[in-house]
Every structure is written in C-alpha cells, then in structure tokens.
Amino acid sequence: MKISWYGHACFKIISKGATIVTDPFSKDIGLNPPRCEADIVTISHDHYDHNNTSSLRGNPFIINTPGEYNLKNVSIFGIDSFHDNKQGKERGLNTIYVIETEDMRICHLGDLGQNELYNEQLDKIGEVDILMIPVGGVYTINSDKAVGIINQIEPSIVIPMHFSLPKLKIKLHSVDEFLKEMGIKEKKPIEHLVVKKNDLSKEETKVILMSVI
Q: What does the pLDDT read at residue 202?
C-alpha cells in the first residue's frame, strides 16, 4: 500500500484493489487540489475544503454518508461523529471512515471535533493500523485532544493532518504543537508511505509526518 498526502485532510491511498482519495479540497483553500484518478472517494462532511470531487479524474464511487460499503476488494465503514464538542450544534456532523484493504485497517477521522470518542464509536472503529487524525484545532480537535484520542484507539501508525501549512488560507495551529504533545522533538516529513501488514507493530505507536505532494 502506498499513501500520499495532498495537504489538509486529503490523502491518496493506492492499494492492490483500488485508488482511494479522502476529503478532496477546493483550490480556494490555497493548496493545489488533487487531480489524480480515483476509484473511491470518501467525504467526511459537505464543506468546500473536504468535498471537491470535481477535481478528480475517472468516475469514482463517492461515499459521503455513514454505512458499510464493499467494492474493488476494499471495505469501508462510515461512522457518525460530531464536527464539534457540542453534539454538532456548532458545526454539524462528521463521518469517520474505516478503510480495510490489503489486510490493514486505516481510520480517517475527518474533521472530528469531539474531545473524545464514545464507546460505541470505538467499538465500530475497532483495531486500527493507520490513523489519520486532525491536530490543528480551531475547526477540529487540537493537539492535546488528538493525543487523548490516539490513546483511545492505540494505532500502530499515526499520520497527523489538518494543520497549518505555508499556502493554506485556513488558519490552523502548527503540527509542531502536536509533535511536542507526543514527546517528539524533531520529525522529518516523508513524501510517500509504503507499508505492508508485516511492517506494523502494536508495541509502540509510530508517528509519520508527511509532506505535501
């Protein structure tokens, strides 16, 4: 499996079964939107910085609601959650997606705003190999709440997302705050993450910082 990051909450996941894109954004946020070909697209919520399916090539299957989906040797579970910590009263709903492919489970938390996950959500999420988690605050959880949720899920790999970037017009907190909360002094970003099930370890959670492709 190969994972790349376009910035914000948008990842491209290339598996043996399909190419999956998460939360494609509009050019209005200041970053270059993804223009790759996709088989499957997941949308965590209907905001312009997460729902720009028009930039993608091909004829992707779009998933934008909770539920269970199975196609191209990929299983995807959409789980209800909140975009804020007030039961959705401020920013509405958000969908968490668990993507199963190549015997691995990826969890993309979207614009999660809850300070912690509920037991019912944790049961549905289950065991996670790779967790994509927002850390930039303002519109989502911040770095210290992100660390708490990581401790709830206990993934093998954590990839922070939805944080401040040089050209991003949306004002968010720096990823450095999250790294500090995780006890990491310095982390060199990588352009692509190539991973197999055998590479994963449950003994220690590893943080992977990605650079925008």
A: 76
pTM above the 0.85 mark?
A: yes
Which residues, in sequence order, are CB contacts of 185 under 8 Å at separation 6+? 179
- Nearest-CA neighbor of 22 among 51, 59, 65, 47? 51
Rounded CA-CA distance 49/110 in Å is: 11
Q: Cβ distance 147 to 181 under 8 Å?
A: yes
* Whole-number Cα distances in Å, 26 to 35, 52, 143, 204, 206: 11, 5, 25, 36, 30
CB 181 within 8 A of CB 158: no
| Closest among 57, 54, 8 to 31, alpha carbons compared | 8
- Tokens read off for 42: 């997941």
Query: Is 192 buried (19+), middle (13-18) or exposed (0-12) by CB count in 10 A?
Result: middle
Beta-bridge partners for 159: 132
- Higher model confidence: residue 199 or residue 39? 39
